[in-house]
Amino acid sequence: MVLIAAVGVCGISLLIAESQIQRMIARQEISALSGAAAYLDNDVRARQGVLRSIAEEAQTRNLSVRDVQALLESHPGLRDEFSNVVAFDVRGDYVANLKNRRDKMLNVSTRPYFQEVLRSRDSVISAPFRSQLSGRPVVSVAQPLHDARGNIYAVLVGGLDLLRPAFAAQVEALRTREQGYLFIVANDGTVVHHPQKELILTRPSGDEMPALAAPLAGPEGWRADILDGKEPALVAWKRLRHVDWTVAVSYPLRDAFAPMASVWFNALGAAGLFTAMAGIFGWGLVKVLLEPLDELQRVVESIDAGATDISAFNVDHADEFGLLSRALYRLSSSRKQASDDLHRLATTDVLTGTHNRRMFDQFLPAALARARRSGESVAVAFLDIDRFKSINDTHGHAVGDAVLVEFSARLQGAVRCTDTVARLAGDEFVVVFEQVRGTGEAHQLGDKILAAMQAPFVVGGSTLRVTASIGIAITGVPTNAEAIMQSADYALYGVKAAGRNGYAVNVVGAEKLASVRGLDEHPPRAATPPGVAHA
Ligand SMILES: Nc1nc2c(ncn2[C@@H]2O[C@H](COP(=O)(O)OP(=O)(O)OP(=O)(O)O)[C@@H](O)[C@H]2O)c(=O)[nH]1
Question: From atom 3 of ligand 1, which residue's Cα is the shortest distance away?
Protein backbone atom coordinates (compact mmCIF):
# COMPACT_ATOMS: atom_id res chain seq x y z
CA MET A 1 0.00 0.00 0.00
CA VAL A 2 2.87 2.34 0.85
CA LEU A 3 4.42 1.49 -2.52
CA ILE A 4 1.15 2.24 -4.33
CA ALA A 5 0.74 5.47 -2.35
CA ALA A 6 4.31 6.58 -3.08
CA VAL A 7 4.02 5.84 -6.79
CA GLY A 8 0.61 7.55 -6.78
CA VAL A 9 1.97 10.68 -5.11
CA CYS A 10 4.93 10.65 -7.48
CA GLY A 11 2.56 10.27 -10.44
CA ILE A 12 0.40 13.20 -9.31
CA SER A 13 3.51 15.31 -8.76
CA LEU A 14 4.71 14.41 -12.21
CA LEU A 15 1.35 15.29 -13.73
CA ILE A 16 1.54 18.69 -12.06
CA ALA A 17 5.16 19.09 -13.16
CA GLU A 18 4.25 17.96 -16.66
CA SER A 19 1.48 20.52 -16.86
CA GLN A 20 3.93 23.22 -15.72
CA ILE A 21 6.54 22.06 -18.21
CA GLN A 22 3.93 21.99 -21.00
CA ARG A 23 3.05 25.54 -20.09
CA MET A 24 6.72 26.49 -20.11
CA ILE A 25 7.41 24.84 -23.46
CA ALA A 26 4.32 26.50 -24.89
CA ARG A 27 5.47 29.90 -23.57
CA GLN A 28 8.83 29.29 -25.23
CA GLU A 29 7.08 28.53 -28.49
CA ILE A 30 4.96 31.66 -28.24
CA SER A 31 8.01 33.78 -27.54
CA ALA A 32 9.80 32.24 -30.56
CA LEU A 33 6.67 32.92 -32.60
CA SER A 34 6.65 36.53 -31.39
CA GLY A 35 10.03 36.95 -33.07
CA ALA A 36 8.74 35.36 -36.26
CA ALA A 37 5.59 37.52 -36.17
CA ALA A 38 7.66 40.69 -35.73
CA TYR A 39 9.92 39.65 -38.57
CA LEU A 40 7.00 38.99 -40.94
CA ASP A 41 5.33 42.21 -39.84
CA ASN A 42 8.47 44.21 -40.57
CA ASP A 43 9.03 42.45 -43.86
CA VAL A 44 5.56 43.26 -45.19
CA ARG A 45 5.71 46.79 -43.79
CA ALA A 46 9.10 47.31 -45.41
CA ARG A 47 7.57 46.50 -48.80
CA GLN A 48 4.64 48.75 -47.94
CA GLY A 49 7.21 51.46 -47.18
CA VAL A 50 8.83 51.05 -50.58
CA LEU A 51 5.51 51.78 -52.35
CA ARG A 52 4.81 54.63 -49.94
CA SER A 53 8.11 56.33 -50.75
CA ILE A 54 7.35 56.01 -54.49
CA ALA A 55 3.95 57.61 -53.84
CA GLU A 56 5.64 60.48 -52.01
CA GLU A 57 8.04 60.89 -54.89
CA ALA A 58 5.16 61.02 -57.40
CA GLN A 59 3.39 63.64 -55.35
CA THR A 60 6.56 65.70 -55.04
CA ARG A 61 7.15 65.54 -58.77
CA ASN A 62 3.49 66.36 -59.39
CA LEU A 63 3.08 63.36 -61.69
CA SER A 64 -0.17 62.25 -63.32
CA VAL A 65 -1.73 58.95 -64.45
CA ARG A 66 0.24 59.06 -67.68
CA ASP A 67 3.52 59.14 -65.80
CA VAL A 68 2.90 56.05 -63.65
CA GLN A 69 4.36 53.46 -66.07
CA ALA A 70 7.59 55.42 -66.29
CA LEU A 71 7.59 55.93 -62.55
CA LEU A 72 7.46 52.18 -61.97
CA GLU A 73 10.15 51.45 -64.50
CA SER A 74 12.40 54.02 -62.86
CA HIS A 75 12.43 51.76 -59.75
CA PRO A 76 13.86 48.42 -60.93
CA GLY A 77 14.37 47.38 -57.28
CA LEU A 78 10.59 46.86 -57.12
CA ARG A 79 11.08 43.59 -59.00
CA ASP A 80 12.95 42.21 -55.98
CA GLU A 81 10.33 43.32 -53.51
CA PHE A 82 7.20 42.21 -55.37
CA SER A 83 6.34 39.53 -57.89
CA ASN A 84 4.83 42.42 -59.94
CA VAL A 85 3.60 45.95 -59.42
CA VAL A 86 0.65 47.30 -61.41
CA ALA A 87 -1.29 50.55 -61.23
CA PHE A 88 -4.99 51.39 -61.64
CA ASP A 89 -6.81 54.64 -61.98
CA VAL A 90 -9.57 55.61 -59.55
CA ARG A 91 -12.13 53.76 -61.68
CA GLY A 92 -10.16 50.56 -61.22
CA ASP A 93 -8.89 50.45 -64.79
CA TYR A 94 -5.38 49.27 -65.47
CA VAL A 95 -2.88 52.05 -66.21
CA ALA A 96 0.61 50.58 -65.70
CA ASN A 97 2.44 47.29 -65.27
CA LEU A 98 6.03 46.87 -64.12
CA LYS A 99 6.76 43.49 -65.68
CA ASN A 100 4.75 43.54 -68.88
CA ARG A 101 3.11 46.69 -70.04
CA ARG A 102 1.10 44.81 -72.65
CA ASP A 103 -0.60 42.61 -70.12
CA LYS A 104 -4.34 42.82 -70.36
CA MET A 105 -5.70 43.82 -66.97
CA LEU A 106 -9.17 43.54 -65.61
CA ASN A 107 -10.96 46.25 -63.75
CA VAL A 108 -10.31 45.98 -59.96
CA SER A 109 -12.88 48.50 -58.81
CA THR A 110 -14.84 45.79 -56.99
CA ARG A 111 -11.85 44.38 -55.14
CA PRO A 112 -12.18 45.03 -51.40
CA TYR A 113 -8.59 46.21 -50.99
CA PHE A 114 -9.07 48.73 -53.86
CA GLN A 115 -12.22 50.12 -52.31
CA GLU A 116 -10.51 50.21 -48.93
CA VAL A 117 -7.63 52.27 -50.33
CA LEU A 118 -10.08 54.83 -51.80
CA ARG A 119 -11.98 54.93 -48.56
CA SER A 120 -9.01 55.18 -46.18
CA ARG A 121 -6.82 57.12 -48.65
CA ASP A 122 -3.93 55.15 -47.22
CA SER A 123 -1.91 52.03 -47.89
CA VAL A 124 -3.74 48.72 -47.49
CA ILE A 125 -2.58 45.10 -47.29
CA SER A 126 -5.16 42.84 -48.88
CA ALA A 127 -6.49 39.52 -47.71
CA PRO A 128 -4.89 36.64 -49.62
CA PHE A 129 -6.59 35.87 -52.93
CA ARG A 130 -5.87 34.10 -56.20
CA SER A 131 -4.39 36.41 -58.79
CA GLN A 132 -6.38 36.59 -62.00
CA LEU A 133 -3.18 37.38 -63.85
CA SER A 134 -0.90 34.64 -62.54
CA GLY A 135 -3.47 32.30 -61.11
CA ARG A 136 -1.26 32.02 -57.98
CA PRO A 137 -2.15 32.89 -54.40
CA VAL A 138 -1.07 36.40 -53.62
CA VAL A 139 -1.36 39.21 -51.15
CA SER A 140 -1.50 42.72 -52.50
CA VAL A 141 0.00 45.85 -51.02
CA ALA A 142 -2.09 48.75 -52.37
CA GLN A 143 -0.79 52.31 -52.20
CA PRO A 144 -2.74 55.39 -53.37
CA LEU A 145 -1.00 58.10 -55.48
CA HIS A 146 -2.07 61.65 -54.69
CA ASP A 147 -1.80 64.71 -56.88
CA ALA A 148 -0.64 68.09 -55.61
CA ARG A 149 -4.12 68.85 -54.24
CA GLY A 150 -4.22 65.55 -52.41
CA ASN A 151 -6.69 63.82 -54.73
CA ILE A 152 -6.11 60.14 -55.55
CA TYR A 153 -5.48 59.66 -59.27
CA ALA A 154 -4.05 56.13 -59.25
CA VAL A 155 -3.42 53.14 -56.98
CA LEU A 156 -0.20 51.12 -57.04
CA VAL A 157 -0.70 47.42 -56.31
CA GLY A 158 2.34 45.30 -55.42
CA GLY A 159 1.75 41.56 -55.47
CA LEU A 160 3.39 39.18 -53.02
CA ASP A 161 3.33 35.62 -54.39
CA LEU A 162 2.62 33.32 -51.48
CA LEU A 163 4.05 30.35 -53.34
CA ARG A 164 7.30 31.92 -54.33
CA PRO A 165 10.21 29.89 -52.98
CA ALA A 166 11.79 32.90 -51.29
CA PHE A 167 8.70 33.48 -49.15
CA ALA A 168 8.39 29.79 -48.21
CA ALA A 169 12.10 29.64 -47.37
CA GLN A 170 11.79 32.83 -45.37
CA VAL A 171 8.93 31.38 -43.29
CA GLU A 172 10.61 28.01 -42.87
CA ALA A 173 13.71 29.77 -41.56
CA LEU A 174 11.60 31.05 -38.66
CA ARG A 175 11.08 27.53 -37.32
CA THR A 176 12.93 26.79 -34.10
CA ARG A 177 12.54 23.00 -34.11
CA GLU A 178 13.21 20.15 -36.44
CA GLN A 179 9.82 18.56 -35.86
CA GLY A 180 6.42 20.03 -36.71
CA TYR A 181 5.74 22.87 -39.08
CA LEU A 182 4.98 26.55 -39.16
CA PHE A 183 1.89 27.99 -40.83
CA ILE A 184 0.19 31.35 -41.29
CA VAL A 185 -3.52 32.04 -41.34
CA ALA A 186 -5.21 35.31 -42.12
CA ASN A 187 -7.54 36.48 -39.39
CA ASP A 188 -10.58 35.49 -41.45
CA GLY A 189 -9.30 31.89 -41.38
CA THR A 190 -7.76 31.82 -44.85
CA VAL A 191 -4.53 29.85 -44.97
CA VAL A 192 -1.64 32.09 -46.07
CA HIS A 193 1.19 29.66 -45.67
CA HIS A 194 1.27 25.92 -45.06
CA PRO A 195 3.70 23.13 -46.03
CA GLN A 196 0.78 21.53 -47.86
CA LYS A 197 0.53 24.06 -50.70
CA GLU A 198 -2.98 22.92 -51.67
CA LEU A 199 -4.29 24.29 -48.36
CA ILE A 200 -3.20 27.86 -49.20
CA LEU A 201 -6.22 30.11 -49.79
CA THR A 202 -8.57 27.51 -48.33
CA ARG A 203 -10.50 28.25 -45.19
CA PRO A 204 -10.86 24.92 -43.35
CA SER A 205 -13.40 24.67 -40.52
CA GLY A 206 -12.47 23.84 -36.95
CA ASP A 207 -14.09 20.44 -37.30
CA GLU A 208 -12.11 19.55 -40.41
CA MET A 209 -8.72 20.86 -39.32
CA PRO A 210 -8.73 21.92 -35.67
CA ALA A 211 -5.01 22.72 -35.76
CA LEU A 212 -5.54 25.36 -38.47
CA ALA A 213 -8.60 26.84 -36.81
CA ALA A 214 -7.16 27.03 -33.28
CA PRO A 215 -5.10 30.22 -33.89
CA LEU A 216 -8.31 32.17 -34.55
CA ALA A 217 -9.17 31.91 -30.83
CA GLY A 218 -7.13 34.95 -29.78
CA PRO A 219 -4.08 37.14 -30.34
CA GLU A 220 -1.78 34.54 -28.81
CA GLY A 221 -2.09 31.17 -27.08
CA TRP A 222 -1.47 27.45 -27.17
CA ARG A 223 -3.32 24.19 -26.92
CA ALA A 224 -2.04 20.69 -26.27
CA ASP A 225 -5.34 18.87 -26.81
CA ILE A 226 -5.57 19.07 -30.56
CA LEU A 227 -5.39 16.29 -33.12
CA ASP A 228 -3.36 17.37 -36.13
CA GLY A 229 -4.10 14.69 -38.67
CA LYS A 230 -4.29 11.70 -36.34
CA GLU A 231 -1.56 12.78 -34.02
CA PRO A 232 -1.96 14.78 -30.80
CA ALA A 233 -0.19 18.07 -31.31
CA LEU A 234 0.89 21.18 -29.48
CA VAL A 235 -0.37 24.23 -31.41
CA ALA A 236 0.92 27.68 -30.43
CA TRP A 237 0.19 30.95 -32.20
CA LYS A 238 0.91 34.67 -32.24
CA ARG A 239 -0.97 37.36 -34.17
CA LEU A 240 1.02 39.89 -36.24
CA ARG A 241 0.75 43.48 -35.15
CA HIS A 242 0.19 45.32 -38.42
CA VAL A 243 -0.77 42.62 -40.89
CA ASP A 244 -4.00 40.68 -40.26
CA TRP A 245 -2.15 37.39 -40.04
CA THR A 246 -1.45 34.91 -37.29
CA VAL A 247 1.71 32.86 -37.41
CA ALA A 248 1.41 29.45 -35.74
CA VAL A 249 3.34 26.30 -35.12
CA SER A 250 2.20 22.68 -34.76
CA TYR A 251 4.41 20.05 -33.09
CA PRO A 252 3.59 16.43 -32.37
CA LEU A 253 3.11 16.15 -28.60
CA ARG A 254 5.45 13.17 -28.37
CA ASP A 255 8.23 15.35 -29.75
CA ALA A 256 7.28 18.50 -27.92
CA PHE A 257 7.22 16.72 -24.56
CA ALA A 258 9.76 13.99 -25.31
CA PRO A 259 11.89 14.90 -22.28
CA MET A 260 8.90 14.19 -20.02
CA ALA A 261 8.83 10.52 -21.00
CA SER A 262 12.26 9.87 -19.53
CA VAL A 263 11.37 12.03 -16.53
CA TRP A 264 8.32 9.83 -15.95
CA PHE A 265 10.37 6.66 -16.28
CA ASN A 266 13.18 7.86 -14.03
CA ALA A 267 10.94 9.43 -11.37
CA LEU A 268 8.56 6.48 -11.07
CA GLY A 269 11.46 4.04 -11.09
CA ALA A 270 13.28 5.99 -8.38
CA ALA A 271 10.08 6.35 -6.31
CA GLY A 272 9.39 2.62 -6.58
CA LEU A 273 12.96 1.71 -5.69
CA PHE A 274 13.23 4.06 -2.73
CA THR A 275 9.82 3.05 -1.41
CA ALA A 276 10.68 -0.64 -1.71
CA MET A 277 13.95 -0.02 0.14
CA ALA A 278 12.14 2.02 2.80
CA GLY A 279 9.53 -0.74 3.04
CA ILE A 280 12.16 -3.45 3.57
CA PHE A 281 13.96 -1.30 6.12
CA GLY A 282 10.67 -0.49 7.89
CA TRP A 283 9.67 -4.16 7.89
CA GLY A 284 13.01 -5.10 9.49
CA LEU A 285 12.65 -2.32 12.04
CA VAL A 286 9.12 -3.35 12.96
CA LYS A 287 10.26 -6.94 13.30
CA VAL A 288 13.01 -5.92 15.75
CA LEU A 289 10.65 -3.63 17.66
CA LEU A 290 7.97 -6.32 17.92
CA GLU A 291 10.37 -9.05 19.06
CA PRO A 292 9.28 -8.55 22.73
CA LEU A 293 5.68 -9.05 21.58
CA ASP A 294 6.64 -12.41 20.06
CA GLU A 295 8.31 -13.27 23.34
CA LEU A 296 5.15 -12.29 25.20
CA GLN A 297 3.10 -14.49 22.91
CA ARG A 298 5.45 -17.44 23.61
CA VAL A 299 5.02 -16.83 27.36
CA VAL A 300 1.21 -16.78 27.01
CA GLU A 301 1.26 -20.05 25.05
CA SER A 302 3.62 -21.62 27.56
CA ILE A 303 1.36 -20.59 30.47
CA ASP A 304 -1.68 -21.83 28.57
CA ALA A 305 0.03 -25.19 28.02
CA GLY A 306 0.88 -25.38 31.75
CA ALA A 307 4.62 -25.39 31.05
CA THR A 308 5.20 -22.32 33.17
CA ASP A 309 3.26 -20.22 35.68
CA ILE A 310 2.10 -16.61 35.54
CA SER A 311 5.24 -15.35 37.25
CA ALA A 312 6.79 -15.48 33.76
CA PHE A 313 4.77 -12.32 33.09
CA ASN A 314 6.55 -10.49 35.90
CA VAL A 315 9.47 -9.18 33.80
CA ASP A 316 11.53 -6.07 34.51
CA HIS A 317 11.66 -4.59 30.97
CA ALA A 318 11.19 -0.83 31.01
CA ASP A 319 9.51 -0.62 27.58
CA GLU A 320 5.81 -0.78 26.65
CA PHE A 321 5.94 -4.55 26.32
CA GLY A 322 7.33 -4.77 29.86
CA LEU A 323 4.42 -2.64 31.07
CA LEU A 324 1.98 -4.83 29.15
CA SER A 325 3.57 -8.01 30.52
CA ARG A 326 3.40 -6.76 34.11
CA ALA A 327 -0.20 -5.64 33.59
CA LEU A 328 -0.96 -9.18 32.38
CA TYR A 329 0.80 -10.53 35.47
CA ARG A 330 -1.38 -8.39 37.77
CA LEU A 331 -4.52 -9.35 35.88
CA SER A 332 -3.62 -13.05 35.90
CA SER A 333 -2.71 -12.92 39.61
CA SER A 334 -6.01 -11.37 40.60
CA ARG A 335 -7.92 -13.82 38.41
CA LYS A 336 -5.99 -16.73 39.86
CA GLN A 337 -6.69 -15.43 43.36
CA ALA A 338 -10.39 -15.15 42.51
CA SER A 339 -10.34 -18.62 41.02
CA ASP A 340 -8.55 -20.04 44.07
CA ASP A 341 -11.05 -18.32 46.36
CA LEU A 342 -13.92 -19.72 44.37
CA HIS A 343 -12.46 -23.20 44.45
CA ARG A 344 -11.80 -22.93 48.17
CA LEU A 345 -15.35 -21.78 48.82
CA ALA A 346 -16.70 -24.57 46.68
CA THR A 347 -14.67 -27.26 48.44
CA THR A 348 -14.50 -25.98 52.04
CA ASP A 349 -16.98 -26.26 54.84
CA VAL A 350 -17.72 -22.68 55.86
CA LEU A 351 -18.22 -23.40 59.58
CA THR A 352 -15.23 -25.62 60.37
CA GLY A 353 -12.83 -24.85 57.56
CA THR A 354 -12.41 -28.52 56.67
CA HIS A 355 -13.24 -29.94 53.27
CA ASN A 356 -16.95 -30.23 52.46
CA ARG A 357 -18.99 -33.01 50.89
CA ARG A 358 -18.34 -31.80 47.35
CA MET A 359 -14.57 -32.08 47.92
CA PHE A 360 -14.96 -35.44 49.59
CA ASP A 361 -17.07 -36.78 46.71
CA GLN A 362 -14.24 -35.90 44.33
CA PHE A 363 -11.43 -36.99 46.59
CA LEU A 364 -12.60 -40.47 47.68
CA PRO A 365 -12.87 -42.01 44.16
CA ALA A 366 -9.43 -40.57 43.36
CA ALA A 367 -7.96 -42.06 46.53
CA LEU A 368 -9.54 -45.44 45.72
CA ALA A 369 -8.12 -45.29 42.20
CA ARG A 370 -4.66 -44.58 43.58
CA ALA A 371 -5.01 -47.48 45.97
CA ARG A 372 -6.11 -49.75 43.14
CA ARG A 373 -2.96 -48.83 41.18
CA SER A 374 -0.59 -49.19 44.17
CA GLY A 375 -2.29 -52.27 45.66
CA GLU A 376 -2.54 -50.57 49.05
CA SER A 377 -5.60 -50.21 51.28
CA VAL A 378 -7.75 -47.17 51.97
CA ALA A 379 -9.71 -46.67 55.16
CA VAL A 380 -12.66 -44.35 55.65
CA ALA A 381 -13.74 -43.31 59.14
CA PHE A 382 -17.37 -42.14 59.33
CA LEU A 383 -17.92 -40.07 62.51
CA ASP A 384 -21.13 -38.86 64.13
CA ILE A 385 -21.17 -36.84 67.35
CA ASP A 386 -23.20 -38.61 69.98
CA ARG A 387 -26.49 -36.96 70.89
CA PHE A 388 -25.53 -33.71 69.32
CA LYS A 389 -29.17 -32.69 69.10
CA SER A 390 -29.37 -32.49 72.88
CA ILE A 391 -26.29 -30.18 72.90
CA ASN A 392 -28.12 -27.86 70.54
CA ASP A 393 -31.30 -28.13 72.50
CA THR A 394 -29.65 -27.63 75.88
CA HIS A 395 -27.01 -25.00 75.10
CA GLY A 396 -28.24 -23.38 71.96
CA HIS A 397 -27.31 -23.53 68.34
CA ALA A 398 -24.26 -21.25 68.74
CA VAL A 399 -22.73 -23.60 71.27
CA GLY A 400 -23.55 -26.47 68.94
CA ASP A 401 -21.62 -24.64 66.21
CA ALA A 402 -18.69 -24.08 68.53
CA VAL A 403 -18.68 -27.79 69.41
CA LEU A 404 -18.58 -28.62 65.69
CA VAL A 405 -15.60 -26.26 65.18
CA GLU A 406 -13.72 -27.67 68.18
CA PHE A 407 -14.56 -31.24 67.19
CA SER A 408 -13.25 -30.60 63.69
CA ALA A 409 -10.02 -29.06 65.00
CA ARG A 410 -9.37 -32.00 67.32
CA LEU A 411 -10.13 -34.44 64.55
CA GLN A 412 -7.63 -32.79 62.21
CA GLY A 413 -5.08 -32.73 65.03
CA ALA A 414 -5.57 -36.44 65.65
CA VAL A 415 -4.80 -37.57 62.12
CA ARG A 416 -1.81 -36.99 59.88
CA CYS A 417 -1.78 -34.01 57.61
CA THR A 418 -1.82 -36.40 54.66
CA ASP A 419 -5.16 -37.78 55.84
CA THR A 420 -8.21 -35.99 54.53
CA VAL A 421 -10.89 -34.68 56.87
CA ALA A 422 -14.28 -33.52 55.59
CA ARG A 423 -17.59 -32.50 57.14
CA LEU A 424 -20.43 -34.16 55.25
CA ALA A 425 -23.38 -32.52 56.99
CA GLY A 426 -24.61 -31.57 60.49
CA ASP A 427 -22.51 -33.50 62.99
CA GLU A 428 -21.18 -36.03 60.45
CA PHE A 429 -17.49 -36.06 59.55
CA VAL A 430 -15.34 -38.41 57.48
CA VAL A 431 -11.61 -39.07 57.38
CA VAL A 432 -9.93 -40.79 54.45
CA PHE A 433 -6.71 -42.63 55.28
CA GLU A 434 -4.49 -43.79 52.44
CA GLN A 435 -1.72 -46.42 52.46
CA VAL A 436 -3.27 -48.19 55.49
CA ARG A 437 -1.51 -51.42 56.41
CA GLY A 438 -4.46 -53.54 57.56
CA THR A 439 -7.14 -53.49 60.22
CA GLY A 440 -4.60 -53.15 63.01
CA GLU A 441 -3.70 -49.68 61.82
CA ALA A 442 -7.41 -48.94 61.45
CA HIS A 443 -7.91 -49.74 65.09
CA GLN A 444 -5.05 -47.43 66.02
CA LEU A 445 -6.72 -44.65 64.06
CA GLY A 446 -10.00 -45.21 65.89
CA ASP A 447 -8.20 -45.11 69.21
CA LYS A 448 -6.43 -41.88 68.32
CA ILE A 449 -9.66 -40.15 67.39
CA LEU A 450 -11.51 -41.27 70.49
CA ALA A 451 -8.54 -40.20 72.60
CA ALA A 452 -8.57 -36.74 70.98
CA MET A 453 -12.16 -36.22 72.12
CA GLN A 454 -11.51 -37.34 75.75
CA ALA A 455 -10.77 -33.90 77.16
CA PRO A 456 -13.92 -31.85 77.95
CA PHE A 457 -15.00 -29.25 75.37
CA VAL A 458 -14.94 -25.71 76.80
CA VAL A 459 -17.26 -23.69 74.56
CA GLY A 460 -19.46 -20.64 75.09
CA GLY A 461 -18.81 -20.59 78.83
CA SER A 462 -19.85 -24.27 79.17
CA THR A 463 -17.69 -27.30 79.67
CA LEU A 464 -19.06 -30.26 77.80
CA ARG A 465 -18.15 -33.84 77.45
CA VAL A 466 -18.46 -34.71 73.79
CA THR A 467 -18.13 -38.21 72.41
CA ALA A 468 -18.45 -39.60 68.95
CA SER A 469 -19.26 -42.91 67.31
CA ILE A 470 -16.89 -43.98 64.55
CA GLY A 471 -17.48 -46.50 61.82
CA ILE A 472 -14.31 -47.44 60.00
CA ALA A 473 -14.24 -49.32 56.69
CA ILE A 474 -11.04 -50.61 55.14
CA THR A 475 -10.65 -51.97 51.65
CA GLY A 476 -9.54 -55.54 51.28
CA VAL A 477 -9.96 -55.78 47.57
CA PRO A 478 -10.43 -52.94 45.08
CA THR A 479 -13.81 -51.32 45.63
CA ASN A 480 -15.76 -48.17 44.89
CA ALA A 481 -16.77 -45.13 46.92
CA GLU A 482 -20.34 -46.22 47.44
CA ALA A 483 -19.32 -49.61 48.81
CA ILE A 484 -16.74 -48.33 51.24
CA MET A 485 -19.10 -45.63 52.52
CA GLN A 486 -21.83 -48.16 53.01
CA SER A 487 -19.41 -50.40 54.90
CA ALA A 488 -18.33 -47.48 57.16
CA ASP A 489 -22.00 -46.63 57.69
CA TYR A 490 -22.71 -50.21 58.82
CA ALA A 491 -19.83 -50.00 61.28
CA LEU A 492 -21.12 -46.64 62.60
CA TYR A 493 -24.58 -48.07 62.95
CA GLY A 494 -23.08 -50.93 64.94
CA VAL A 495 -21.30 -48.54 67.28
CA LYS A 496 -24.43 -46.46 67.78
CA ALA A 497 -26.39 -49.60 68.43
CA ALA A 498 -23.78 -50.77 70.90
CA GLY A 499 -24.11 -47.63 72.95
CA ARG A 500 -21.99 -44.97 71.16
CA ASN A 501 -18.55 -43.46 72.10
CA GLY A 502 -16.62 -46.18 70.37
CA TYR A 503 -15.54 -47.35 66.98
CA ALA A 504 -15.88 -50.44 64.89
CA VAL A 505 -13.84 -51.57 61.92
CA ASN A 506 -15.32 -53.26 58.89
CA VAL A 507 -13.48 -54.78 55.99
CA VAL A 508 -15.41 -53.95 52.87
CA GLY A 509 -17.32 -57.04 51.80
CA ALA A 510 -17.23 -58.66 55.30
CA GLU A 511 -19.06 -56.04 57.25
CA LYS A 512 -21.02 -57.86 59.90
CA LEU A 513 -18.15 -59.99 61.13
CA ALA A 514 -15.68 -57.17 61.14
CA SER A 515 -18.07 -54.83 62.90
CA VAL A 516 -18.70 -57.22 65.77
CA ARG A 517 -15.12 -58.14 66.03
CA GLY A 518 -13.91 -54.62 66.18
CA LEU A 519 -15.99 -53.76 69.24
CA ASP A 520 -15.24 -57.08 70.86
CA GLU A 521 -11.51 -56.63 70.43
CA HIS A 522 -11.57 -53.49 72.51
CA PRO A 523 -13.57 -54.33 75.61
CA PRO A 524 -12.50 -51.24 77.61
CA ARG A 525 -13.89 -48.91 74.93
CA ALA A 526 -16.91 -51.11 74.31
CA ALA A 527 -17.52 -51.00 78.08
CA THR A 528 -17.38 -47.25 78.11
CA PRO A 529 -20.89 -46.05 78.78
CA PRO A 530 -22.29 -44.64 75.57
CA GLY A 531 -23.83 -41.23 75.28
CA VAL A 532 -22.96 -37.75 76.23
CA ALA A 533 -21.32 -37.06 79.45
CA HIS A 534 -21.47 -33.62 80.86
CA ALA A 535 -18.52 -32.41 82.75
N1 LIG B 1 -25.38 -26.25 65.86
C2 LIG B 1 -25.54 -26.92 64.72
N3 LIG B 1 -26.37 -27.94 64.64
C4 LIG B 1 -26.54 -28.63 63.52
C5 LIG B 1 -25.87 -28.23 62.35
N6 LIG B 1 -26.22 -29.10 61.37
C7 LIG B 1 -27.08 -29.99 61.91
N8 LIG B 1 -27.29 -29.75 63.23
C9 LIG B 1 -28.11 -30.44 64.17
O10 LIG B 1 -27.40 -31.61 64.60
C11 LIG B 1 -28.32 -32.56 65.06
C12 LIG B 1 -27.95 -33.91 64.58
O13 LIG B 1 -28.61 -34.85 65.30
P14 LIG B 1 -28.54 -36.36 64.90
O15 LIG B 1 -27.17 -36.76 64.49
O16 LIG B 1 -29.62 -36.63 63.97
O17 LIG B 1 -28.85 -37.02 66.25
P18 LIG B 1 -27.98 -36.99 67.55
O19 LIG B 1 -28.67 -36.06 68.48
O20 LIG B 1 -26.58 -36.66 67.28
O21 LIG B 1 -28.14 -38.46 68.03
P22 LIG B 1 -27.22 -39.67 67.59
O23 LIG B 1 -26.61 -39.33 66.35
O24 LIG B 1 -28.13 -40.79 67.51
O25 LIG B 1 -26.25 -39.80 68.68
C26 LIG B 1 -29.69 -32.12 64.56
O27 LIG B 1 -30.44 -31.61 65.68
C28 LIG B 1 -29.38 -30.96 63.62
O29 LIG B 1 -30.38 -29.93 63.69
C30 LIG B 1 -25.02 -27.12 62.42
O31 LIG B 1 -24.38 -26.67 61.44
N32 LIG B 1 -24.89 -26.49 63.64
Answer: 400
